[in-house]
Amino acid sequence: MKITVVGTGYVGLVSGACFSEVGIEVVCVDIDQKKIDKLKNGIMPIYEPGLEEIVKRNYASGRLQFSTNLGEAIQGSEVAFIAVGTPPGEDGSADLKYVLAVADEIGRTMSDYIVVATKSTVPVTTGEKVRAAIAGAQEKRGTNIPFAVASNPEFLKEGAAVEDFMKPDRIVIGVDDERAEEIMKRLYKPFQLNGDRIIYMDIPSAEMTKYAANAMLATKISFMNDIANLCELVGADANMVRKGIGSDPRIGNKFIYPGVGYGGSCFPKDVKAIIKTGKKYGYELRVLQAVEDVNDDQKYVLVKKVKQHFGEDLSGKTFALWGLSFKPNTDDMREAPAIVIIDELIAAGAQVKAYDPIAMKEAQHIYVGDKITYAKDAYDACVDADALLLITEWSEFRIPSWSALGKLLKNKVVFDGRNIYDKSYLAENGFEHYGIGTQDPVQQLIKNAL
Questions:
Q1: How far apart are CA 18 and CA 51, in angstroms?
Q2: What is the pTM of this model?
Q3: What pLDDT score was predicted for residue 445?
Q4: Are 141 and 175 part of one and the same domain?
């Protein structure tokens, strides 16, 4: 079986590589010649655990190929996946120009029946727009070759995408063509040998499922951050509250960790897009608008705590930042809370010395020149820093040597943006600890005085 995957970004490359891993012939297509050349030489455009090994292994075997020629790639392919970017427009809606450009080219170059499946996250009605683009391109060339359109949204977690694809908890397929359904069923059979995980539905429902899933997860995060902020005001501990509500199976313990807000390529973009879709149809999604507002505000919480401790003017201060990516096990800094935090610190006159195990190269595209300093390791970042800010909970940050940090830092002050440190243990070692949704040192002093 042969398929084509258009787009070699996060979704396209992971999907193409994993399909080739089970014996399917895959051609990954991208218009960026430099990216394609690098992939042929085993150089990955993204960091994702396990991906590089799979790409190199299957490229060497010939099952995985890379090309810039879509017209050639789709010849003999039973499925063409559209996995290109859908960046948010100025009004928050998803920009479909890349998706529809691919559909148009497929219509101009196809020579036999093919299933065109969107893996890109797209708003409802995109399937019909893709269908119209393909049909319109065929009409211009004077052909009427049969084809089908499908929606096959991805549910991959950055940092665990390969495992998620190889062992999916569900596979959503929106389709309205029996032949296309059989092809998609055959394509995904290797991924469900231990049980049928495919959920078939109509195309609009599949498109909405992706947005609804991300919006629900984003809602949990913003809800918990809202509760955490209230916990600080009333003297409760958000960590205890999280455990209490997370034990309820109707709620669960995932995505209810207080922190400095969500980021990445999915939640921010998809929440904006579904809000925009609602407005397009005359409906205001008030809960999701609040989710977005809470998340925007949450990215400023840690800097507010820094200013509470050191004062509004941070001139002459240097802060060590641990973590730049929006989450561990990825180099993705899109909408990362670290960006807001760094910008706010710099605006207040501070110097920033940052360390991230993977994302520093990506950060250098955002902060060009000497706007911030990049450390060689976590401890180097803390040398002569006035305080430590934990932004991303990479594993190597979980149990540092506090005795070493106490000697490196000018002040034993930690701003824990992910609540991964034990406040009591740090206090025993002479550190002041500021968390999210917990009683900070200044607040405790105020309460003791009342």
A1: 9
A2: 0.87
A3: 46
A4: yes
